[in-house]
Amino acid sequence: MSLRYLATKLLRALFTLWLVVTFVFVVLRLTGDPTDQLLPDDVSPQIVDYYRKAWGLDRPLWEQYLRYFQAALRGDFGVSFRNNEPALDLIMQRAPKTLELGGATILAALLIGIPLGVLAAIWRESWIDRITMTVSVLGFSMPNFFLGILLILLFALQLRLLPSSGYGTWAHMIMPVFTLATAFAGSLARFTRSAMLEVLSRDYMRTARAEGASLSRRIWLHAFPNAAIPVVTVIGFYVGAIIGGAVVTENVFAWPGVGRLLTNAVGDRDLAVVQGIVVLVAITMVTANLLVDLAYGWLDPRVRVGAGARGR
After folding, report:
1. Topology given in CATH for the domain delimited by 87-311
2. Tell me, what's the pLDDT at 229?
3. 197: burial class by Cβ within 10 Å (0-12, 13-18, 19+)?
4. Which of 64, 111, 158, 305 shows its CA 20 to 30 Å from the CA of 182?
């Protein structure tokens, strides 16, 4: 993999992050003065001026942006207006719980989606294929909040098998993980099936079968590696979006993660916390897409060769 290819992808990632930081900063400032939300209606103008000065809101917008951008480069995302604590500290306190939920979700989706997609491709047009694709469409079509509420009604209120909310044991993870993994696994199964169907019709697959290779060897050593690029695309997208997608699910199940913190911060107009979380989500998305691009170059040499030819 050439240095030019790596440098191009890295510069695009950095430029995307800069655009996100700038866009979020400007949009949040255009939504109004946070002192209107955080301070009582009957507070004196002197107190309002004091807090606006303390939070740097009395400065021109361009100066606020420069100060914020310079501080962000040092890893300083400001102080929470609500808690008077560094925003990054508040986010890092919640991040492990969201990462725990996200990691379990990704693992569950991979273990379910990829095998189902492979089975549907092998048994194309059979009842296995039809049932798998029907369940997949249902999975990524159903809204997270609706599925989560159904699970709470069934397994927590009716059957009393699982806790409806909270954090602490493996039982608390089952319903949130299932809720988040359903859409991911459904999309992964459909993309895996489509990619496998294209590969299974290739000449080298017929050659491998004629040479007496077993079905498992043909599928996992010949077919799946060549069908990996579109599958990697879906994995990269969902890995990057796992924090953003956890916002609704964490609120439904009262999971104490970054998603729930974001909802509270938006309601409080806590700009520093909102900006920090959005930047964290952007970093996750950009990093995931960067890794996907690098995986393309490793899986398919034509990608990096094409990049090098365009560079010349």
Report:
1. MetI-like fold (1.10.3720)
2. 75
3. middle
4. 158
